[in-house]
């Protein structure tokens, strides 16, 4: 499998970014289909309470996914730095440590989420008519946390080695499985949100198992044998040093969405369903920026490891321009035909009206995240994850959440105020990011 790795320190920057980011983008697009398919199928075969249950339940599970993706980003960055510096032994030890840590963490997270689900849903002011269905969704989905850890860890190490194509293969098979099981369990068997959750965890299991089988049959750097799982203390500490700030930032951003969900849920099941549907579309709209952020992290880490900071900075500017172009298309769609988005999910007229008001203001963020996400990816690749975390937490917890609460009261009867909080928070993050980039501290780099 080593022949699938890619040296991102040579060749055309634009070509490297595109060839790395496109499979990453498609993989993220396919992964986002999980939640969207769950929402759509439940919308087709259930009612607004079912949609609300999947909306709230998936937001709860997103906290775990955000934690995992943040930690795995630490693995991608560290592996890419070692790979760029041509330190093969350190690369192998990092992979072994990451997989071992995540196997243990997956079991622990499963127990915590299963037990805490009722309390979390109550804290979120889940609409009473959707509570039991949301509880079933979260508890069933929690049983698949180990698979979430496994798939993300494997994908992270491959991307650190410059391979973004293999993760796309694994997640594509999982998504097709998820769609088939959704139609069977939700549509055919009438299991509602519980069936959607069960379909998701089974498809995640398929994805992880196929990934392991695929890699063990190739000349990959890690053989997945039990005796090969070992935790190296120095690598564990470095993974946590880089990954924990990213994980904390990602998870707290998800928590902020839960605070906003609580504000929205308190307004009733119609608004809950409307924001839930808009959120699924937003996941797709922000995929280009997310993909280029991941690509720039790996490319920057390899180039900084190879002692090429100027090439790393140039790649940031190219990534921003590409992500901005994609984000503008989604922004234009929402501004010109927002009702078409709501109709994909079979939203009734009341849900559609509420969703349009929310999406028109929120969609401004589709443009701003092109800058914010790519800059965060660049700083993370430089090992400056603490700054990215601090900047992200400030804009999210000190700007977005308070503004969402205030504007929901200042503009009563409409979700446009809550939607406006996101672009205002991103603007704050962008300003601090530009200042930090100008300061040049990111250049003070050494391989961890």
UniProtKB/TrEMBL annotation:
It is a multi-pass membrane protein. The chain crosses the membrane at residues 21-46, 66-85, 97-122, 134-154, 166-188, 194-215, 257-278, 284-304, 316-336, 356-379, 386-407, 413-437. Keywords: Antiport, Cell membrane, Ion transport, Membrane, Transmembrane, Transmembrane helix, Transport. Pfam families: MatE (PF01554). It is found in: Cell membrane. Belongs to the multi antimicrobial extrusion (MATE) (TC 2.A.66.1) family. One of its GO terms (cellular component) is plasma membrane. Multidrug efflux pump. The keyword Nucleotide-binding does not apply. Its main location: membrane. GO terms for biological process: monoatomic ion transport. GO terms for molecular function: antiporter activity; xenobiotic transmembrane transporter activity. The keyword Transmembrane helix applies. This is Probable multidrug resistance protein NorM. It comes from uncultured Anaerotruncus sp.
């Amino acid at each position: 499998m080593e022949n699938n790795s890619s040296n991102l320190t040579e060749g055309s920057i634009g070509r490297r970014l595109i060839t790395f980011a496109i499979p990453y983008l498609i993989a993220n697009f396919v992964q986002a289909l999980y939640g969207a398919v769950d929402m759509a199928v439940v919308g087709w075969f259930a009612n607004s309470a079912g949609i609300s249950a999947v909306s709230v339940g998936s937001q709860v599970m997103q906290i775990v996914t955000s934690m995992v993706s943040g930690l795995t980003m630490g693995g991608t960055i560290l592996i890419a730095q070692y790979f760029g510096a041509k330190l093969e032994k350190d690369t192998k030890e990092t992979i072994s440590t990451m997989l071992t840590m995540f196997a243990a963490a997956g079991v622990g997270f499963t127990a915590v989420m299963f037990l805490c689900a009722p309390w979390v849903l109550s804290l979120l002011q889940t609409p009473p008519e959707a509570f039991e269905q949301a509880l079933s969704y979260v508890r069933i989905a929690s049983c698949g946390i180990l698979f979430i850890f496994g798939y993300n860890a494997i994908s992270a190490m491959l991307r650190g080695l410059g391979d973004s194509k293999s993760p796309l293969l694994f997640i594509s098979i999982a998504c097709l499985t998820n769609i088939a099981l959704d139609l069977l369990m939700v549509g055919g068997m009438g299991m509602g949100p519980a069936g959607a959750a069960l379909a998701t965890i089974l498809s995640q299991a398929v994805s992880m198992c196929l990934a392991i089988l695929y890699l063990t049959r190739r000349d990959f750097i890690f053989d997945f044998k039990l005796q090969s799982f070992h935790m190296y203390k120095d690598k564990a500490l470095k993974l946590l040093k880089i990954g924990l700030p990213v994980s904390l930032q990602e998870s707290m951003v998800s928590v902020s969405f839960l605070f906003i969900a609580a504000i929205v849920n308190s307004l009733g099941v119609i608004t809950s369903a409307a924001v839930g549907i808009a959120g699924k579309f937003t996941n797709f709209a922000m995929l280009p920026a997310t993909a280029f952020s991941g690509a720039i992290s790996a490319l920057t880490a390899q180039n900084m490891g190879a002692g090429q900071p100027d090439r790393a900075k140039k790649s940031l500017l190219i990534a921003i321009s590409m992500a901005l172009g994609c984000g503008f298309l989604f922004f234009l769609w929402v501004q010109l035909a927002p009702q078409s988005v709501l109709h994909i999910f079979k939203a009734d007229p009341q849900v559609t009206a509420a969703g349009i008001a929310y999406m028109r203001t929120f969609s401004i963020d589709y443009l701003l995240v092109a800058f914010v996400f790519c800059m965060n990816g660049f700083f993370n690749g430089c090992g400056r994850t603490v700054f990215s975390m601090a900047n992200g937490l400030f804009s999210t917890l000190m700007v977005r959440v308070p503004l969402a609460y205030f504007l929901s009261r200042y503009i009563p009867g409409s979700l446009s105020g809550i939607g406006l909080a996101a672009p205002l928070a991103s603007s704050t993050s962008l300003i601090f990011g530009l200042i930090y980039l100008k300061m040049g501290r990111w250049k003070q780099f050494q391989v961890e």
